[in-house]
């Protein structure tokens, strides 16, 4: 077992966990989990312990983009369509 | 959100609502002290022995909210655990405990994670009411580690052990989630890498046992 990584370390990492995405974005875990399950945020899975790893920069960009679309009043199916066509 | 420590996260969960812990809730009050001691241990500032605690390193600048507790332990000789519990949880005045909660509460206020209210008619007392956002943040961190596959950090395992022992889990997690979390914690404790967490859980139990003995001795 290891200690929790500090924000300073997380902000420089290539890969982050879903918990670290919660810390970086201040978004709810359930929301990020839902986006993941719906294929709106992509991840890689480490084989040895099944940990889902997210590319930090790419994921943050995607999360903020989804957030901006939500603020424009778009529904989840609409957002999924937009992401698919991008 | 900035980095939060075990003690800060524990207080956010324990003080949710009125911003204070009832004097009757002994387990919660003991766990406040336990969270501080475990955090000092994880920062290599102290060594926890079965009956004594001794200082082994300086308090880092970022942990100044633990200074009241650190200063109390920082003596030429190791301090008996009984003495800590007596002073913090079983004294006539709760000055020491209020001092510790005040220091941690102030650190949270500086981050905008609690608001301060006052209670009491004759002697005014400060209450530290956690914001909804702070509570969601801590609860989500636990969910994101313990309800996911993969590695669990010592910090979250320790926090969950404190919440579980002080019966706070049910305030934030569904029965299904509690069952999952307990199962995960049990797995950790029984694994080779979970030795530290097992030691921490034993330590929390020990502190509560000492408090129980003190209570029984003084009521007989």
UniProtKB/TrEMBL annotation, chain A:
Keywords: DNA-binding, Repressor, Transcription, Transcription regulation. It comes from the Bacteria. GO terms for molecular function: DNA binding. Residues 15-85 form the HTH merR-type domain. CDD domains: HTH_MerR-like (cd00592). It holds the Pfam family MerR_1. SUPFAM superfamilies: Putative DNA-binding domain. InterPro entries: DNA-bd_dom_put_sf, MerR-type_HTH_dom, MerR_fam. PANTHER family: MERR-FAMILY TRANSCRIPTIONAL REGULATOR, REDOX-CYCLING DRUG-SENSING TRANSCRIPTIONAL ACTIVATOR SOXR. This is DNA-binding transcriptional MerR regulator. It comes from Blautia caecimuris.
């Amino acid at each position: 077992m290891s200690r929790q990584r500090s924000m300073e370390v997380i902000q420089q990492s290539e890969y982050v966990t879903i918990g670290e995405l919660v810390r970086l974005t201040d978004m709810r875990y359930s929301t990020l989990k839902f986006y993941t399950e719906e294929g709106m945020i992509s991840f890689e899975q480490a084989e040895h312990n099944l940990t889902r790893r997210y590319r930090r920069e790419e994921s943050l960009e995607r999360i903020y983009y989804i957030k901006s679309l939500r603020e424009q009043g778009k529904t989840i199916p609409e957002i999924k369509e937009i992401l698919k066509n991008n | 959100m900035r980095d939060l420590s075990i003690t800060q996260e524990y207080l956010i969960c324990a003080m949710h609502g009125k911003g204070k812990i009832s004097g009757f809730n002994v387990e919660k009050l003991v766990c406040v002290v336990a969270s501080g001691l475990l955090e000092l241990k994880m920062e290599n500032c102290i060594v926890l022995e079965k009956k004594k605690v001794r200082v082994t390193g300086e308090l880092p600048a970022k942990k100044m909210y633990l200074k009241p507790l650190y200063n109390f332990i920082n003596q030429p000789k190791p301090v008996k655990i009984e003495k800590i519990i007596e002073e913090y949880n079983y004294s006539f005045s709760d000055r020491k405990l209020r001092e510790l909660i005040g220091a941690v509460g102030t650190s949270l206020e500086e981050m905008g994670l609690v608001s301060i209210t006052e209670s009491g008619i004759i002697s005014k007392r400060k209450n530290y009411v956690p914001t909804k956002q702070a509570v969601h943040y801590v609860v989500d961190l636990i969910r994101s580690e313990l309800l996911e596959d993969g590695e669990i950090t010592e910090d979250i395992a320790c926090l969950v052990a404190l919440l579980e022992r002080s019966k706070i889990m049910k305030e934030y997690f569904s029965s299904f989630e509690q069952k999952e979390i307990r199962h995960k914690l049990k797995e950790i404790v029984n694994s080779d890498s979970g030795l530290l967490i097992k030691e921490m859980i034993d330590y929390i139990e020990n502190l509560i046992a000492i408090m129980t003995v003190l209570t029984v001795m003084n009521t007989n």
